[in-house]
Design brief:
alpha+beta
């Protein structure tokens, strides 16, 4: 998943019950498999102390495209991962076509 990503920034309050999708996404990003796929990917985690602060995820891809996902988007963790993987897969396919 991280192969096509240059940076990930996650901001959330760890005490809020509404941040579960953000925590699921962060857990997958920090997995050993993903970390070894792209060790140069910058991962920034910011925790806040205010329960009412929205959780946010900012993903920057190799081509400069940025995804901004807020907890107000009503997505679950798997939906967020699916969106990121879908775009990453498209970038991988473009790279494969260019290298041929």
């Amino acid at each position: 998943m991280l192969k096509q990503i240059t940076s990930v920034r996650v901001s959330f309050c760890p005490f809020s019950r509404h941040t579960t999708p953000t925590k699921v996404f962060l857990n997958r990003v920090l997995s050993k498999k993903n970390s070894t796929a792209n060790p140069s990917c910058k991962i920034d985690v910011v925790t806040t102390n205010h329960v009412k602060d929205p959780a946010t995820i900012d993903v920057t891809f190799k081509d400069g495209k940025k995804f901004h996902i807020s907890s107000t988007a009503k997505l679950n963790g798997d939906d967020i991962i699916a969106q990121v993987q879908k775009y990453s897969k498209r970038l991988s396919q473009q790279e494969d076509l260019q290298s041929q």
